[in-house]
Records
---
Amino acid sequence: MRIRAAVLEEFGAPLAVQDVELAGPGPGEVLVRLLACGVCHTDLYTASGADPSGYAPCVLGHEGCGVVEAIGEGVSSVAEGDRVVTLFSPQCGECVHCRSPKTNLCMAIREQQNKGYLPDGTTRLSRGDERIRHFMGTSTFAEATVMPEIALAKISPDAAPEMACLFACGLSTGLGAAMYTAKVEAGSTCVVFGAGLVGLGAVAGARLQGAERIVCVDLSEDRLELARGQGATDVMVGGEGAVERILEMTGGFGADYTFEATGNVKVMRQAVESARMGWGLCTVAGVAGKGETLDIVPRYLITGRRVAGSSFGGVKGREQVPQLVDRWLAGEIDVGPLVSRTVGLDDVNDAFALMEAQDGIRSVITLS
Ligand SMILES: NC(=O)c1ccc[n+]([C@@H]2O[C@H](COP(=O)([O-])OP(=O)(O)OC[C@H]3O[C@@H](n4cnc5c(N)ncnc54)[C@H](O)[C@@H]3O)[C@@H](O)[C@H]2O)c1
Ligand SMILES: [Zn+2]
Ligand SMILES: [Zn+2]
């Protein structure tokens, strides 16, 4: 079939929205008609050429929500008409990581996905004789996509697509960092650095876990206001001296749990140093620039602080994304304020520009 899609032709150049060919689903694959897709930093990072593992041409996009249009041979867990969220982090349920409760890093299709191919090493996207690669196994800046069954989470049909798509990446990453990676305990004190979608999700996740005090740190007053809406009890403008101020607020000890959601290695260090001696756990969700390293004075670790990293919030996507969506639909998570605007596919480059200007939390592309 012919579909409209936003193609990364050349690093550093605007995406080109155009018609491309999408072949039908092979065995174990699913054709998804996309309804909405969030525009995330990772798309921009790859489009800019900063990501050393990027490739072109490819169709970008990974924060997708859509409806199943057709299934390939052997597909049994989703059916035509199901509403789904796309997962760049799949869950096969069988690999050594899927069988462990300790991680969500499914190994099943990683190697091919990283190269831009579906699990059988080919693509369903093409243009004439030229094949176009799949981005993050998802390629959701498009009217439709073909994805492995194990990379689709079936969600409630009541979930509005332009909000549900945020659960495909940033929002679940933040929620999960607090709920599944850190496993925040009720009554605890948390500090979240960064109030973008990931940080705001971590604030909401800490609240859902019953944290008593949640301090959010950001440079933008507007974003700190949004953090209050997600459950922050205190907010603070960050920068130099943030650690000292957090220690003052916490009787000189620091917080039980800290979260880093900025991608800045200096802020990661602040998050480590703001964690409490004895048991403070710092969870790093931000993605640092290529080659950057995190400085930690070892004494912080010897005196009982721990550091954890979190990819996709530790969320086991097929199982837990539907649960998170249900909590939103039950009124426990306020997703509306996180969608700053909706745009058409043709405006994808404008959405990139807004993101670079830190204008709004998420722009969402509406499709179909
Ligand atoms: N681990 C994962 O699986 C995963 C998934 C999605 C995104 N990410 C990463 O998480 C990070 C956050 O993503 P986002 O979409 O929320 O980004 P964002 O840019 O919208 O938010 C980052 C926030 O950090 C704030 N900030 C910058 N410097 C600061 C400082 N010194 N102190 C306090 N706050 C500061 C900014 O004002 C901004 O509000 C990025 O690095 C992104 O690449 C990771
Ligand atoms: Zn993302
Ligand atoms: Zn697996």
---
Amino acid sequence: MQDVIERCRRAGYTVHATSTKTGEGLAAFSAALAGRISVVTGPSGAGKSSLLNRVQPGLQLRTAEISAKVRRGKNTTVSAVMLPLDAGGYLVDTPGFSEVGLWGIEPGELDSCFPEFRPVLGECRYGDCRHRTEPGCRVREAVEAGQIARDRWESYLVLLEELESAPEEWE
Ligand SMILES: [Zn+2]
């Protein structure tokens, strides 16, 4: 677990390690949500509900506003719900999602979603570089040089493939 946390931090993400049993990390996590609109996602059984109920007991009962409808695949519609937080801000809960979707991202924008790619973006030889096997690709050079973790780049390639083959759109 510590390894995963370190790798995410190195990639440029803020990580809050929390425990609903010991209460560890909950105060910092709650503070990070205050005054913002945050999306909650993760596989079923990951403990989202337990975590959110520790952030604000009774939160799940206060569901109110339907904020957006998303069409996934063939006529499957699910709702996202905005839950107001006492500390200000909202949580966007996404019941029915088993994993993170990629709505509204253009394939050419995906690279900027990887924080550790950003320092070299715009420096590739070709302006429309997708960072696969193009010559003069700075992202790939950074992977070879160990500045970007190889498995992160591989994740990028998988997601890129997904976006290019089956785009999903907001209604
Ligand atoms: Zn490139």
